[in-house]
Design a protein that fits this description.
single chain, 577 residues, alpha/beta, Alpha-Beta Plaits, Fumarate Reductase Iron-sulfur Protein, Chain B, domain 2, FAD/NAD(P)-binding domain, 5-stranded parallel β-sheet, 22 helices, disordered N terminus, disordered C terminus
Length: 577
């Protein structure tokens, strides 16, 4: 086997080209960000210059014939460390925990780590397809306005997403440095720096393809807000129907202030309302009312959230003091905002305090929000989850922050039953489980169960959309699946070749991204005549950035298809159907 010369200098990456495998297809050449790959036109075989190689290994991932290998280090500076803030006393403190990049020097150093890849896998990893290399390049030039201009093409919630996205399994997990086994560019922190150091511009109404259209949006969470933004900027008249008294959905009640400050959470809805989008609060739209909306609007976008908690099927589930996460977070948010205590249902039980114990069922991100909020109300908090800690679907930083703040987390533990008196929960019986692998379902062991005295039990095990809404959103939920033969462009990017980067918690970032893309594309097509869906309404529980991306795609689908209600079609033959 003939190979290129291998250098003995291990301080730099060493590129080996297997010439009997190289077909001269140049997939590696067009994707190399440093110009280290070239083509020998005489032999039609690629060659590599080790001196120019950074060790990002894009050539290894993209070669369809496994003709290239690289050994040695990655030539990149260390990632900028991000700080967290934990006050000495958590009581009533809802200041933001995570600190972003705070100085221009830090931002510039981190921006310099970006390779500006010709086929940026980070963009594919982002559900919204933010042009990450471009906004980082703008930041590197010190141009925040240009960076915002890049972001606004794909995102109207950069300040929110920078705070709440699980970047490790999205953009940062798909960064070339992550795929090479190292630490990615701190994309989320750079996005936050841009949004925090210059105001996010309001929507700009233009005479676009939405002129003359009237659109109804049901739900004002991330999906609904994103769709309203896109449609309004295109010139459409937009009315958002929201069952609550305020806009925002999950952004308002589902994410604590110490993660997402209210000024950030409320910005997008306030900007839309100030610009001319109509919000009708306290208006619940059921499946019957959708037809009435279609009589008065050209299209309806269903962007309702998954607000129905999964049922708890254990003895004692009907006792008082068993709340779902939505109820707890909403009440706790109001109590913390007013500086008051969180009172329980019956007044003789008082409020949560230092002598109270809250049991949280689940150990995902919502459960961490509940537990950390309860700690700020003074209560002892215990989270239980039947999964092994290694396989639990929770961000490691969220887990570490919760434990730093005194949350007790018991993995391989499940609720067996609850008991109480005067119709109020007082005792929880907790069984032990075991789990052999991430794909294996945990099973209950024969170990003696534990008993925990509790004052409140909060369900944070997941949500689903109300069954009554499925009548007007047929064909759902849309599964985030990957086709047996994925799109050639995704295969060629090399994302699918690296199964599970360590930085991404060994999760398959490529397949996860491609699955999200399936759902995003589906959002662009109507579910029934003149009815679109996005976010939870389309796929079931979604992340903020997924919902936003789907909302934008649904709006683009409406603008492409130009639906018109029959009354307008009959009165104006020039209208597009």
């Amino acid at each position: 086997m003939t190979i290129t010369e291998v250098r003995s200098d291990t301080a730099v990456p060493q590129v080996t080209v297997l010439v009997d495998r190289c077909a001269g297809c140049q997939e590696c050449l067009v994707r190399c960000p440093t110009g280290a790959i070239s083509l020998d036109v005489a032999s039609w075989i690629v060659t590599a210059d080790d001196a120019l190689c950074t060790g990002c290994r894009q050539c290894v991932r993209t070669c369809p014939f496994s003709a290239i290998t690289i050994s040695g280090p990655t030539m990149v500076a260390s990632r900028t460390p991000l700080q967290t803030h934990h006050p000495e006393s958590l009581l009533r403190d809802h200041c933001e925990t995570r600190r972003g990049i705070t100085t221009w020097d830090e931002a510039m150093r981190e921006a310099e780590r970006c390779l500006s890849c010709p086929d940026p896998t980070c963009v594919r990893g982002c559900p919204a397809h933010n042009d990450i290399p471009s906004f980082i390049a703008s930041l590197g030039r010190g141009d925040l306005d240009e960076a915002h201009a890049v972001l606004r093409r794909t995102s109207m919630l950069p300040d929110v997403c920078a705070r709440v996205c699980d970047q490790a399994v999205q953009c940062e997990g798909a960064c070339s440095w992550s795929l090479a086994g190292g630490e990615p560019v701190a994309i989320g922190a750079l996005e936050r720096f841009i949004a925090d150091y210059a105001p996010v511009p309001p929507p700009r109404r233009e005479a676009g393809s939405g002129l003359g259209m009237e659109i109804a949006i049901v739900g004002s969470g991330p999906a609904g807000l994103a769709a309203a933004w896109e449609l309004f900027e295109a010139g459409a008249k937009v009315t958002v129907f929201e069952q609550d008294a305020e806009a925002g959905g999950l952004l308002r009640w589902g994410i604590p202030d110490f993660t997402l400050p209210p000024t950030i959470a409320n910005r997008a809805a306030s900007a839309l309302a100030s610009s001319g989008v109509t919000f009708r609060f306290g208006t619940k739209i059921g499946s019957d009312e959708v037809e009435l909306l279609l009589d008065d609007h050209d299209a309806v976008l269903m962007a309702v959230g998954a607000g129905m908690p999964l049922a708890l099927n254990v003895p004692g589930a009907d006792l008082g003091g068993v709340w779902d996460a939505t109820r707890f977070l909403t009440n706790a948010h109001e109590a913390l905002a007013r500086g008051n205590e969180l009172f329980l249902d019956d007044t003789h039980r008082g409020s949560l305090g230092s002598d109270s114990t809250v049991l949280v069922l689940g150990a995902g991100n919502t459960a961490m929000d509940v537990a950390r909020t309860a700690r700020r109300l003074g209560a002892r908090t215990v989270c239980v989850d039947w999964m092994d800690r290694r396989f639990a679907p929770v961000r490691p930083d969220e887990l570490a922050e919760a434990e730093e703040e005194g949350v007790e987390i018991r993995f391989l533990t499940t609720l067996e039953r609850m008991a109480g008196s005067a119709e109020w929960v007082e005792v929880a019986r907790l069984a032990h489980t075991m789990q052999k692998s991430a794909s294996a379902k945990p099973v209950v062991t024969n170990c003696a169960p534990d008993t925990l005295e509790v004052d409140l039990v909060v369900l944070a095990m997941g949500y689903r959309i109300e069954p009554s809404m499925t009548d007007c959103i047929p064909g759902g939920p849309v599964a985030k699946t990957v086709a047996p033969l994925p799109d050639r462009r995704w295969v060629a990017s090399g994302m699918l070749a690296n199964a599970a980067p360590p930085f991404a918690r060994h999760l398959p970032v490529g397949r996860l991204a491609l699955g999200r893309e399936t759902a995003r594309v589906a959002a662009g097509e109507p579910r029934t005549a003149r009815v679109w869906a996005a976010g939870d309404a389309l796929t079931g529980p979604s992340t903020v950035v997924e919902a936003m991306a789907q909302g934008k795609e649904a709006a683009k689908g409406i603008l492409r298809q130009q639906p018109r209600r029959p009354a307008i079609e009959e009165g104006d033959s020039s209208c597009k159907k």
